[in-house]
Amino acid sequence: MMIDAKNLHFKALNERINEAAGEQVVVRNCCGQRYIASGLSGKRLELYGTPGNALGAYLDGSTILLHGNAQEAVGDTMNAGEIDIDGMAGDATGYAMRGGSIFIHGNVGYRAGIHMKEYQDKKPLLVVGGAAGSFLGEYQAGGTIIVLGLHAAERVPVGNFCGTGMHGGVIYLRAESLPVDFSERLLSKKAEQADLEAIMPALRRFCSLFHEDLEAITARNFYVIRPNTNNPYKQLYAAES
Amino acid sequence: MRRLYYGHLFYFIRKWSFVLKEGQVRIPSGCAISGIFSKKGNLICGDQIVKSISVMHDRSNGLGGGFAGYGIYPEYKDYYAFHVFYDDTEAKQACEKFLERHFDIINLSKIPTKKIPAITDEPLIWRYFVTPLPHKLSDSQLDEREFVARCVIRVNTQITGAYIFSSGKNMGVFKAVGYPEDVGSFYRLDEYAGYSWTAHGRYPTNTPGWWGGAHPFAMLDYSIVHNGEISSYDANRRWVEMFGYRCTLLTDTEVITYIFDYLIRKQGLTLEEAAHVVAAPFWSTIERKPPQEREQLTYLRKVFSSLLVTGPFSIILGFEGGLMALNDRLKLRSMVVAEKEDRFFIASEESAIRIIQPELDRIWAPRGGEPVIVQLEHGQGGEQA
């Protein structure tokens, strides 16, 4: 099933996707339509162009492959399924994600993985091939965020305030040093074999999706970042300097 | 509760908007901004910027749209182009009397518009090409631009029902209540061409939205389109009003225009320095900078502390020969920039760029507080039309 999104409003486009016969749906000429595949289950979407904000919001089991860049809030509050973006993504990617996986080939904007959470078998995963902006994993409560820093100019492929307010989950940062403003509320260690084993399925998936070299990726150091439970947040809004 | 409260307020405002203007009521926005620039000064038809902003239709709500075009009046490039809204003919007579006393009016006309159902209740919209009367200018002991700026402020504060909303040379602002694509067609922007364009689609959240309150806001050749909400408005306003500016519209964006006019024209700051005042880095970020840069950033934050703009924003500053895009330091609004040969693009959403330029050489998202400046290449006047 092929849909031409040219000049289609997001409402009409989503209706066409929902009503499309069969599992496989290809959408061409996306240009700014919001909420594509929101809450959708049981479909395999392949998108071309530039879809609008909140691509795959509340996604509930479908898979989305985008050939192009995504805008803001990809996979907002996503529940299950997979979103693969062969390009870059905007701010708040994986916002409040509660399940499923997002793979981004390039960079993501600010606040990726903000307030990601997990519960029992629901463990969201966000893999960023390039660099992430500031506030990566802000208020993260669960799930896994991996930033690979491929083709990134920065020595540490993440902006300021990484993991601010983080109290659950884990961030893997592929870098030779930690962010200069690394928070005292967080713990870090260089990844050991067991840590890497835990993310190997995610790395293999990333490499097969975007044709990257797994050996080159694992040849460099990963930092594993978790909240420091011995130094919890006691005063959230008063001055903590 | 908050949402419910605002919802009720919104209905109230819709009902009463015919009596209330900006600042008399507060509604808590999405907005859209877009900009196109030719580094070689090649002329871009106004229909391009209209097409770009229209993709982001759903970011606005029909209560404001506007455009600024640079290089659009080559035949009058040495004259200040005043675009004026009048509530009635009395306001027009009073304003024209003032203009005649202070300026040589080279040409005046109604701004050509097209009646369309989507745009209603328009004021009288006039355009004047003027130059200060030499004796008035010399008697004032002001430089020419300061003289013009003061005259604009005087009209906007002292002549009821008259509002000069555009006052630069070889540039013009076109704005109205309506969706931006309708505003573009109302002002017949496809009949203009310029080397630089900015656009705004408005979703007023704090105020009801009226013609004067639409973006861009302009003073001389500086114009601002803004997506966001300024929480430092009153601190900023009090500072600029010390220097003769008057915030007549009671809408937050207006003050940003005056801040840039003050910092760049009056204080002689560079665009980068002005950006570091408006979106100053955190003290913790400044501490980590090399000594010379640290000293400079500390100086700017201390001297112009009242001009730090807080709250979410993405803005495009238009000026003669260039554009500057800037996000707030926390990057609470979306913005991407892109290049294709001599064209430079800025937009709230990538789709607004792709619709007019599907293939790009480069596209990226600038960091919060990081100004992106594009200017005409050396020797490109943008006036070859």
Question: Could you explain how this protein is built, in words?
Answer:
The complex is a heterodimer of chains A (241) and B (385). Chain A is 14% helix and 27% strand. By secondary structure, chain A is an alpha/beta fold. Chain A has one domain (2-226): Pectate Lyase C-like, CATH 2.160.20. An eleven-stranded mixed sheet of chain A has the order 1-2-3-4-5-6-7-8-9-11-10, with helices on both faces. Chain B is of the alpha+beta class and 385 residues long. Chain B has one domain (37-375): Aminohydrolase, N-terminal nucleophile (Ntn) domain (Glutamine Phosphoribosylpyrophosphate, subunit 1, domain 1, 4-Layer Sandwich), CATH 3.60.20. Chain B has twelve helices and 18 strands. In chain B, strands 8-3-10-1-16-15-17 form a seven-stranded antiparallel sheet. Chain B has a five-stranded antiparallel sheet with strand order 11-12-13-14-18, covered by helices on one side. In chain B, strands 5-6-4-7 form a four-stranded antiparallel sheet. In chain B, helix 2 runs antiparallel to helix 6 and helix 7 (233-241) crosses helix 8 (253-266). Chain B is globular. Chain B starts with a helix and ends in a 10-residue tail after the last strand. Chain A binds chain B through residues 10, 30-32, 34, 49-53, 69, 71-72, 88, 90-91, 107, 109-110, 133-135, 159-160, 180-181, and chain B through 55-56, 58, 282, 284-285, 288, 330-331, 334, 336, 349-352, 354-355, 363-365, 367-368.
